[in-house]
Design goal:
The protein is an alpha+beta fold and 176 residues long. The protein folds into two domains: 58 residues; 96 residues, no CATH class. The chain is built from five helices and seven strands. The protein has a four-stranded antiparallel beta sheet, with helices on one face. A hairpin with a 4-residue loop joins strand 5 and strand 6. Helix 2 packs antiparallel against helix 3 and helix 3 runs parallel beside helix 5. The chain is globular and about 60 Å long.
Length: 176
Amino acid sequence: MIRPEALVTLSRYRDLALAATVCAAGLWLLRLGGWLFLPLGAALLALGAALGVIALRRLRFARPTASAGLIEVDEAQIGVFGPEGGGFVSLREMTELRLLSRGQRRFWRVKQTDGQALLIPVDAAGADRLFDAFATLPGMNSQALVAALDAPGGAEDTLGPVVWRRERAATRLGPA
């Protein structure tokens, strides 16, 4: 009944529509007034605004699929399957995240504790799931994550700035 192109567009904006619906319900409760409805409406409005900010960041993070390959996120593990390579990385084993430009293509460069690096295409199928996976990293700034993608990529091979780095545990020197 619904054209596939329209369904794809609607599903892309579903988080934003949910946030707008929660905000509308909050405004409706605020309009009713009273000791019960005013705080409840204000809480719903705040929740809708927070959901809206997250939805907008996810929208900015998602890119149209242009690369061959598939990205899968399952139980704190990222899997990359593609014709040019692939691999797996555990979110617990990640130590560094950078954005790399190679020619006209861009990749997330994920480094692990053992020194291995995995390149994840920014525009592969399933890359939109990486926002939620990366957001769970300790100390990750989701604004910096989205800003790194919005920065223009160079035509030459460049290794961009560090988007995230795991803080090393402080070591104690001297007697315990």
